[in-house]
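Retro notes, item 3 of 5
We never archived the inputs for the heme C complex last cycle. Fixing that now. Sequence and ligand:
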Amino acid sequence: MKELKILAVLVVFTLLTYIGIEPFAHKEMNPAVAPANFNYEQEDIDLASVRVEEAKIALKKAEDKLAQNTSDQNLINAVESAKKDIELRENDLSAYKELWAQVNKIEALKGDADSGAGAVELCLACHSLNSQDRPNALTDEELSQNYGVVLPDLSLAGAIYDKKFLAALIINPAQALKITKKFNDENPFLMSATPVSYDGEFDEASAQSVADIIAYLQSIAPQNATDKEVFESACVRCHDMRYDAVYSPSEKTALKAYMGSNPPDLSMMIRSRLADYLENFINDPQKKLDGTAMPRVGLTKEHTEQVIAYMDKVGDSKKEERVVVGIGMIIFFAILALLAYLWKVGVWRDLH
Ligand code: HEC
Ligand code: HEC
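Structure as it came back at the time:
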């Protein structure tokens, strides 16, 4: 009877930890956000709307504080800056609405891969296209010096990036990558030099050439890239994966100066962040980590999963082995417990 009571206490406390405390701690450390949404149009408009609402709540709070102490200059400033913040966020929301409306016009056009093969020369002024024997004219070192980062090769671009994201990226890269805090009219983003860039006017011919470039990139992209190839194409211009001897070609000092922070090695990220977090973060870094230096990458759901599968394989290569050993241990202890019980019964029978 006494043993049963001890067992009951143990069970209750274990359950309390796992069902109560553990999820609570997770929630506190890692506030819940809306799930990953690979419909990037909806994702961008939703998040921008949430940010506007948050700014309105902040203004309300600032005004309430000011009402209690109307002469405090700090509180007056806080209200002013909260109002500015709302304006900025409302501008961001309308920028996304406008961008995606343009993308939808392009989406309605039929892209022609043959014309795209010519139009893509615009892109090859900066990018390489190795699968078509078009290496970059600049070395990795020169690219790092000029751009802060070795620009991605476009061989897989037509497959791994969401089609509509690609259109958004071509017409307004800084907005699509969500780096407008850093790059704007005063400090234009380098890719904005693309002649097809959207600058308030967007004619039919430009729209058609964007559709053509995308059709061309899709026509040359292999459909069966491995998990590692997808990772290398999408992430390795910034991140290392040391446990698999994968190193970024970008020069570290230039990269840090460009990004404003060091992209971490991703070898163990799957263990510290877990797959759910990663899917959400890759889908829209700003949603998970407001103000992060990492641009949004724009992969399709399928290719995001490939990236995570690769990170899982490298960072947690012993996972399958661990599961097998774990089950073995449970069986071992179950048999041991049974034997111990039988032994105890045997010993006590002789004593009574
Ligand atoms: C003036 C140089 C320049 C031109 C021209 C250019 N790009 Fe880029 N591209 C960049 C830079 C700079 C980056 C961003 C590098 C970074 O921040 O990681 C980039 C990034 C990209 C990315 C990666 C985006 C992501 O989500 O990770 C793709 C895809 C891309 N460009 C496609 C194109 C296409 C297609 C064209 C032609 C329509 C093009 N680029 C034209 C400079 C250029
Ligand atoms: C243009 C550069 C760039 C690209 C491309 C890029 N990242 Fe990052 N990433 C960064 C930077 C910079 C940080 C550090 C963010 C910070 O300090 O705010 C970061 C941080 C991260 C983190 C850590 C987030 C955290 O919770 O701390 C993860 C995970 C990550 N990146 C995964 C990826 C994956 C996966 C890809 C490819 C799909 C990718 N990144 C592509 C620049 C990049």
